[in-house]
């Protein structure tokens, strides 16, 4: 289905070496608008042999964390990227170290 996410905070989990590292944070623009900023570090090119699993927790009304509240699995990560992240793909193409790569899969490391 279609989802709308209204995050109040993005908290980095314990540091561990992964092939793809996501480091995001919330930046408040106005009293009712925030944007997600950050970076993605790829230790290898992103191609369709990769699968991505996004697992998030939510903070409940008494301040505890409910693990695995949202689990989203993406198979064929490179091809599916645009479907999931929309126009973000165009932005990423402009901000990679190597601007001379093929605009399709795989994305360079």
UniProtKB/TrEMBL annotation:
Highest taxon above the source species: Eukaryota
The protein's name: Uncharacterized protein
Organism, as annotated: Cinara cedri
Lineage, uppermost ranks: Eukaryota, Metazoa, Ecdysozoa, Arthropoda, Hexapoda
């Amino acid at each position: 289905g279609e989802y709308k996410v209204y995050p109040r905070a993005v908290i980095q989990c314990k540091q561990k070496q992964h092939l793809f590292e996501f480091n995001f944070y919330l930046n408040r623009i106005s009293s009712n608008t925030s944007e997600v900023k950050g970076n993605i570090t790829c230790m290898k090119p992103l191609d369709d042999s990769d699968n991505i699993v996004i697992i998030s927790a939510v903070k409940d009304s008494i301040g505890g964390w409910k693990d695995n509240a949202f689990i989203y699995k993406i198979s064929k990560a490179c091809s599916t990227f645009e479907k999931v992240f929309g126009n973000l793909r165009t932005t990423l193409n402009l901000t990679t170290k190597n601007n001379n790569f093929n605009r399709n899969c795989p994305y360079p490391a």
